[in-house]
Amino acid sequence: MSSGSSIHHSHHTYDHAHDAAHDHDHVEANKKYFNNSDFSLQVNEHAVFLEFANTVSAAIREVFPFDPSSPTALDFACGTGLSTRAYAPFAHAKGLADKMSGVCSELKGAEGELYGAQFDVCIMAYQHFASAKDITSIITRFLKPGGMLLVVDIEVIATIDSRPLVIEGLQNLDYIPHKRGFQVEEGLVSLNMERLTHVTLGGRFDVDTLLARGVRPSEK
């Protein structure tokens, strides 16, 4: 990978031997939905999602101070790239667009994937993956020593009666295995977790968002 700041955003597909059939079903369901809908147009032009992307961007920049000299970032499960574009200018203000690349890849954690690239920060969501443990193991292989993994996702609501419309909307989506979100207490595979923010989207949809982060040990 060339030197200088760069942002790579990858669609959220992966493959793993563990429970492969179950995982494959979700991978294919995600592909089918996002490839055959106008979802990206709906999201990228909607004020509600723009507001959420900016909120996520601000939180990411608080926990990972982007050094404009040479950071590289992998935004895995980037969706339409809306959140990526919200924080990308803070990684490198000049010429960043020329160094952004989009990849649709089924990651297995094999040597040489993504051209052997390693990243200072990997940013992703978990709700589209059947196994948080498996995908964490794969993604951390792409982190540089001292690099940070950030996971932004929906926080589970304690009672069904109080869950917001956002959670209700997940219940009938076949391509999302985790329809309830996650709890801060779950830890998501030994990552430090904290409540990120409570967002009221467009005055209609309430959603609690959490941020999980972990740092790959530096080489001695």
UniProtKB/TrEMBL annotation:
Annotated spans, Disordered: 1-22
Biased composition (Basic and acidic residues): 12-22
Name of protein: S-adenosyl-L-methionine-dependent methyltransferase
